Amino acid sequence: MKNCLRQLRAERGWSQGELAARLNVSRQTVNALETEKYDPSLPLAFRIAKLFGRRIEEIFEA
Amino acid sequence: MVQKNPFIVGGPRLFALIVLYVILVIGGVVLAASLERGSPARIAVAVVQGLIVTAFVVALFVSIRQLDEMEQRIQHEAMAMALAGTIIVVTGYGYLERAGLPAVQWGLWVYPLVFLFWALAYGFVVRRYR
């Protein structure tokens, strides 16, 4: 699943570690999300959307 | 709270648990060897060894439940592969035993076999997500 997570994170100047802490996941999970090797669960996708103030479909694209 | 992968070397909590487990199991084997086979004392030692194994497995599963969703998924895939590998080896050798190869005490070997396959499978699965 494609996403713009890396771009959104860069806009806020956060490191992968900072984003991981805000989402309560590991840095490896953030990296796997950004490289599109892992698709998040719905609850995690909602947490990501809420954190960035966007709708899920604005961040993730099938 | 997100914990580090329990298989990463340097994870102090699980490492300490593994060391304690090995000491207790080896100590139990040494102690059991000095006791008469079938005696209540030796049976009691065997029961304690079984409880130690149970405690270790429970601790491992609690540790996995503290991981984040991707790490849990990796562990679950690795566990499924370990189960498949163990079934193949144990059942496959079972047929060979019936064909005349030496009998193996699987009660003792299944446990380390599962963990060997689990560690190997983890190394394989984690590469897909890194």
Please give a structural write-up:
The complex is a heterodimer of chains A (62) and B (130). Chain A has 62 residues and is mainly α. Chain A has a single domain (2-61), classed as lambda repressor-like DNA-binding domains (434 Repressor (Amino-terminal Domain), Orthogonal Bundle), CATH 1.10.260.40. Chain A is built from 5 helices and 2 strands, in the order βαααααβ. A two-stranded antiparallel sheet of chain A has the order 1-2. Chain A starts with a strand and ends with a strand. Chain B is mostly helical and 130 residues long. Chain B has 2 domains: 1-67; 68-130, no CATH class. Chain B has helices at residues 12-33, 40-65, 69-98, 106-126. The longest helix of chain B is centred in the middle third of the chain and has 30 residues, at 69-98. In chain B, 13% of the residues are buried. The model of chain B has no long low-confidence stretch (mean pLDDT 84). Classes of the chains: A mainly alpha (62), B mainly alpha (130).
Topology:
The complex is a heterodimer of chains A (62) and B (130).
Chain A: E1 2-3, H1 5-12, H2 16-23, H3 27-34, H4 42-52, H5 56-59, E2 60-61
Helix pairs in contact in A: 2-3
Chain B: H1 12-33, H2 40-65, H3 69-98, H4 106-126
Helix pairs in contact in B: 1-2, 3-4
